[in-house]
Design brief:
about 140 residues; 6 strands; Nuclear Transport Factor 2, Chain: A; six-stranded mixed beta sheet; single chain; about 45% strand
Length: about 140
């Protein structure tokens, strides 16, 4: 049985925006298993300088990420789209175990299969240390 994750390609502006919002909502759960289900079983990622292959590695990567990046909160914005590709820009904020807050800025390029699962995700990300009072992304709690 094949997993299907609407909206499906080919994307319109409306369906691309919906796909971006669904991704933002899923990542903000900080649930690696849930997030991994939006990707093909053999999905390919580049996240900064880390290369991830398949759902099992996605779960392991996200588990470790959210163990280090505490109170993580993400915002994504549609940048561009084609029939089966979406580009987003994003920012997220988190703090480390010592209480230092960071804002990460970046861009992602996504490619989807016919069932709406992401088969490729390439992310370029830069971090900036910030003061707690400079946070822009509202906390979830």
């Amino acid at each position: 049985m094949t997993d299907v994750r609407p909206p499906l390609p080919p994307f319109t502006e409306e369906s691309a925006r919906e796909k971006v919002q669904l991704a933002e909502d899923a990542w903000n759960t900080r649930d690696p298993e849930k997030v991994s289900l939006a990707y093909t079983v053999d999905s390919e990622w580049r996240n900064r300088d880390v290369f991830v292959h398949g759902r099992d590695e996605i779960v392991a990567f996200l588990t470790e990420k959210w163990r280090r990046e505490l109170d993580y909160r993400l915002r994504k914005e549609l940048w561009a789209y084609t029939d089966r590709r979406i580009a987003v820009r994003f920012e997220y904020e988190f703090h480390d175990a010592e209480g230092q807050w960071f804002r990460a800025y970046g861009n992602e390029n996504w490619e989807f299969d016919d069932d709406g699962l992401m088969r490729e995700r390439f992310a370029s990300i830069n971090d900036l240390a910030i003061l707690p009072e400079d946070r822009r992304v509202a906390p979830l709690d």
